[in-house]
Amino acid sequence: MLNIIMFGPPGAGKGTQSERLMQEYNLTYISTGELLRQEIREESEIGKKVKERIEGGGLADDETIVKLINKTIKSHESSEGFLFDGFPRTYVQAYILDGLFLRRQQKITRIFILELSDEVCKRRLMQRAKEQDRKDDNEAVIKKRLQEYHQKTLPLLEFYKNSGLLTKIDASGSSDEIFSRIKHYINEDIRKQAINVVMFGYPGAGMTTQANRLADELNLKCIATREILQQEVKDQTSLGLQIQPYMEKGLLLPDEIVIRLIEKALSETNGDGRGYVFKGYPRSLVQAYILDGILKKKGNSITCVINLEVDYIELMKRLDERSRTEKKMPYDSSATTIVARLEEHEKHSRGVLEYYREHNQVIDVNGMGDIEDVYKRIREPVIKASRNLR
User: Fold this and answer.
1) 279-282 long-range CB contacts below 8 Å, 24 or more apart?
2) Is 87 helix (H, G, I), strand (E, B) or coil?
3) So what's the pLDDT on residue 256?
4) Starting from the edge strand earliest in sequence, which strands make up the sheet with 166-170, in order?
5) C-alpha to C-alpha distance for 331 and 246, rounded to whole angstroms
6) Which domains can be identified in the chain, with CATH numbers?
7) Is the pLDDT of residue 390 over 50?
8) Helix (H) / strand (E) containing 208
9) How confident is the model at residue 202 (pLDDT cuts 50, 70, 90)?
């Protein structure tokens, strides 16, 4: 997820840039002031409590604030991230926000500081007050708001000083220019995020073609177990001799053998590329757990699972056609062996997909039609899932 905090003096354009970021990256805007006003309007228990405190000249307590933020985050599970404005304001609140994200196994992506001189901020606010007839935005009020920003907000940045998250943005110029400066850093974060995709589907669904295209575009390494196994058999290694009978029948290999081959393939590409596309693995629930463990050792996890859906008749047709090419597999030799292979896949695949669905990682894609059209259906959701920064 993209979790962004926006700091900046009054008049720097936080509202304008926040609105554009929300639209561009499907972020949920969280303003503590707006959340409190909403509770007051709804006359909720929290709203009544907060209203009394505010009318008495006080501020909402941190416990109330954290409850509201937690409630908002939980009610926007489909959001691709959160944009915080007006929070945190204190060291205590900064720790609270860190704790909230820690419990959700997430983190803050960037903290943007819009930088603009007090003189320019004052000029912008006075102009806005004139255009919108905002009599409360007079010179004395504006001066006080700027003083409060320097006295209260800027010291809070010390909390994040060594985090590597602080990013200063020149807030002068047009709205488009400022937005372009912000987008540069966000897109950089997205590009750095590892992507690990499982390409799933029945034999004949087109996994190899689509996996290779995805790998080429996103700078991923394709880990295709079939190709790895075929190479072992071709080289007549000791593992190859053990593998050959299983491959000829299209049966699953013992996990002990596959683990060693997968780890070997990953070690050979370590640090080379942005991540991996796994094709032909995992093929069982046990292997799904194993893959999670292998990636966790590398500090990574599965980004998404593409489930290519192709109807049974089309699968039979494609595998029959493949049997007459140099790409044919041993089980393509007859309708009987093809059916057996499809049934074998069905037997083991159900548990794998259920496992990934429980983690909301499965993206069902219609695998029928032109190769280019199918790839377009795959590409967009993978790009979207890749923004799930953790």
Assistant:
1) 279/199, 279/207, 279/208, 279/211, 279/222, 279/223, 279/224, 279/225, 279/226, 280/207, 280/224, 280/225, 280/226, 281/198, 281/223, 281/225, 282/198, 282/352
2) coil
3) 83
4) 28-31, 81-85, 2-7, 110-115, 166-170
5) 11
6) 2-27+79-192 (3.40.50.300), 195-386 (3.40.50.300)
7) no
8) helix 207-218
9) confident
Please, what's the b/e burial string for 120-132 (b: 16 or more CB within 10 A of its CB; e: otherwise)? Answer: ebbebbbeebeee
Considering the chain, what is the average pLDDT of its residues?
Answer: 85
4: tokens are 């962004």
Q: What does the buried/exposed string (b/e) look like for 246-270 if buried means 16 or more CB atoms within 10 Å of the residue's CB?
A: ebeebebbeeeebbebbeebbeeee
CA distance 134 to 136: 5
Q: Model pTM?
A: 0.68
If you search the block for the tokens 């950089």, which residue do you land on? Answer: 188
Q: Partners of 365 in the beta sheet?
A: 308
pLDDT, position 15: 87
Q: For the chain, percent helix, then strand, then coil, each to nearest 5?
A: 60, 15, 25
In degrees and rounded to multiples of 5, residue 308 shows phi and psi of: -75, 120
Inter-residue long-range contacts of 320-326, CB under 8 Å, 24+ positions, other chains counted = 322/204
Say which range, 69-73, 163-167, 334-338, has the weakest mean pLDDT.
334-338
pLDDT of residue 389: 47
pLDDT of residue 57: 61
